[in-house]
Design a protein that fits this description.
- With 167 residues, the chain is mainly α.
- It has one domain.
- It has eleven helices and two strands; from the N terminus they run ααααααββααααα.
Length: 167
């Protein structure tokens, strides 16, 4: 049975458990994206319950099929990805995800040892793959692999392994 609340939220006709629309979340500032911790589970839902947000939506097989088959849901998933890529200083360049001009400044916020954003990135990768955007998940992993090669001590092999497994 599909998660109708998540589907309505993603279609732009419903709200998350805090009463925010997807547009509200997309408009959050970078500071808000850093400080608020309960939106990421709505933008990038998984099949497993979140330890940090037990009220977050879950994706079942029917919900995943609906994402794969609905162009509005897919377009909105792409927009959610672009929001988070901007936060990380990354961007989509045709069929690749690359570092944006803002990367050096944005990376100071998240590219530090044991940063909680490594978990968020694992969620993004896994959710993209689950919701039918495996191509984007692979592109993001390729970009993160380049970053890992340059910053292996910062990212760590364990984190990189989680990223690989997520895709």
């Amino acid at each position: 049975m599909a998660n109708e609340q998540l589907l309505r939220f993603y279609a732009g006709i419903g709200t998350d458990d805090r009463g925010r629309t997807i547009e509200d979340v997309w408009r959050l500032s970078f500071d808000d994206l850093e400080d608020i911790h309960d939106y990421i589970q709505w933008l990038f839902p998984l099949a497993e319950r979140s330890a940090f947000n037990p009220g977050a939506p879950l994706v079942d097989a029917e919900t995943a099929r609906r994402f794969e088959g609905d162009p509005v849901l897919r377009q909105n998933l792409e927009r959610s990805l672009r929001v988070m890529l901007g936060f990380y200083g990354l961007e989509i360049d045709v069929q690749r995800i690359v570092r944006a001009p803002s990367f050096a400044g944005r990376a100071r916020n998240w590219l530090t040892p044991h940063n909680h954003h490594f978990l968020r990135l694992t969620r993004v990768l896994k959710s993209l793959a689950l919701l039918g955007a495996g191509d984007r998940a692979t592109q993001l992993l390729d970009c993160l692999e380049d970053i890992y090669r340059e910053q292996p001590v910062v990212v760590g092999s364990t984190t990189f392994g989680y990223w690989q497994t997520a895709v």
